[in-house]
Batch of 4 targets.
Target 1
Amino acid sequence: MAKFFLMGNFTEKAFAGFLKDPGSDRSEVARKCSESVGAEMKSYTYLRGPYDFIVETHGTFEQMAAIKMATEGSGALKNIAICEETPLNEIANHATKVSSGYKVPGQ
């Protein structure tokens, strides 16, 4: 299973829900969303900045895309970015091999 980070924003609909129930535990809802597709949520954190929350979840891209589709489709969330952990050193090793034979257009 790959490690993913889902960052997103609440909509006006969600903020109205928080005003109605300030103690709402969104982490439990996120956990249930993950489990419903066979993924495993590791953490849920509210953020200050361009995103309102970040969720670390282990699973597949298809599972993350399904979570995005369903939760944004509800109208409560928007702008969910799906970011996948990546092995940068392994990528750099492959890039070194590619760059040794790559020619810039026109050269």
Target 2
Amino acid sequence: MLAVNDINLSYGASQALWGVSLTAEPGKVTCLMGRNGVGKTSTLRAIVGQQATRSGSITLDGKPVDRMRPFERAREGIAFVPQGREIFPLLTVRENLETGYACLKGAERHVSEELFDLFPVLKSMLGRRGGDLSGGQQQQLAIARALVTRPRVLLLDEPTEGIQPSIIQDIGRVISLLRDRGDMAILLVEQYFEFAKELADTFHVMDRGEIVLSGKADEMDEDDVRAHLTV
């Protein structure tokens, strides 16, 4: 289980996170929601080590990871699909997937056929450059690249942003399959409430760098959640 406990994070003199705490458990989707600029991406960046926290703790199965470097956290099993996908446009689909080998031992460095069961379109595009794919296909590639690392925790930062509805459905199906497998914790940052409520087991809602609402999906007041998503 991933446990984030009372973390504070600043960018220079500006504090972005104030005492943020949450957990993500295997076999469940934890959804982090809120308007733009309230600290959702900063929370993910803190978890993967792209931004240092000022205080608090981050643990994986009880093991502290908050002082580890990003590649060390990846080796521990934390994978990140960033907002905007950030695939390598000049590398082929196959080469993009193989960049996930960096945190794996030699015997583990292969692309599982399961990935192509999850994302069939990628198998027919292995030789195409990442930059030639549509936005939805690039998002599928970004998720598949993260899964190459065989993560225990998968962080997804707004995977539906700018994606056509048919691919949003495909991504939702994949998240459901990964959750139901039972061995992976999924932390999903999302603004699209209709997508999130179909997947989430637990909600955390942020405002101004703090978590202001938390609870199991079936206990949350939908109007309260939506009130923190509208501008």
Target 3
Amino acid sequence: MGQGPDSASLMAEAEGLVFPRFDETTAYLLGTAVVDMAVEGGLPVVVDIRNAGRVFFHVALPGSTALNDKWVQRKSATCLLFHEASLLVGTRNREKGETLARHGLPPEDYADHGGAVPIVVEGAGMVACLTVSGLPQVEDHRLAVRAIRAFLGRA
């Protein structure tokens, strides 16, 4: 696992990732933007956008595996529970010397590795999450953030 950002920088980063609105069309367009970036870079990832009750977008690119789908589920569950990026949850846990087990969360259902980033709508809070899996955890996170920033620049 590579050295990643600290919790303060991840919290500051999140403040700039706010959508004006979110719906199924937004999910499709954002998901497609991530896939385009991944295809251009030849990245073997799974891209997923979901909320607690519904999957809005899911694509597995060449080179990704069924294990990446499992990681997506676990990282998404963490992001949706804490309303924070899974990398932030994991970074904070490591900074405190804690694990998700402290919260009674089983590792087969939750992962505090990077790649799941909240989709936050201005005035509504977190409504879903974008999750990437297939790269080292910090790179999963960076791809998701880069895609959101690019998407918001066009929105």
Target 4
Amino acid sequence: MAYSGGVKKSLFARWQANFWAGLVIVLPGFISLAVLRWLFLTFANITDTLLFFLPARLTHHDQGVGPMYWYWSAAALLLAVFLIGIVGLLARNYFGRKIIEWVDSALMRIPLLNKIYSATKQVNEAFSSSNKSAFRTVALVEFPHPGTYSIGFITSEQQQEVQDKTGLKVVCVFVPATPNPTSGFLLMVPEEKVIKLEMSVADGIKYVISLGAIMPGYTPALNPSAWGLRGAASGSPGHD
């Protein structure tokens, strides 16, 4: 009986090990599909309104009780992508730009909506690839207290008023929250206390979103003088 119990325990232990090994393999795919489904349904709630010219019983519900037909939502999403492309095409010519400027001006005159629109537009321009001054360099700063480092992105190095009143040459560093990099802290850090990293901005964002699990590749510099400069930048003495 003792032997039989040992065999059962061994089988259960092996099944448990197999279960956790399988979970590690299946979980990323499951989460990816769940996020993709959530994004699709979220965008569908917005883009479905583009099918206003079709009867609701075809595009959404059968007399209010039937299931939503996903293929109509997919068609609405494709229509939205097409219309956004048309807007981008219009923005490339003179008359299209004038129309966009007129719509922009009209939205800025609507109370309350203008606050939301203006803030959203500024955030969009800050993250836009055409904005060369935003998120230029990945850096390390001592935050939230000395001796603890956080990943940040240098957004600006021209802070004339702050430099005049503090007597220090400071740079703006945005330290994003994890895993949501759209929120975080804006720090003004003395330039000598900022350690610039060699990883790209895209790799830096992946590093933040993955909670540090996705580490970009790094090849140490072979030039000994580079280590001395790095040590000076971090406040530690360089090697002889």
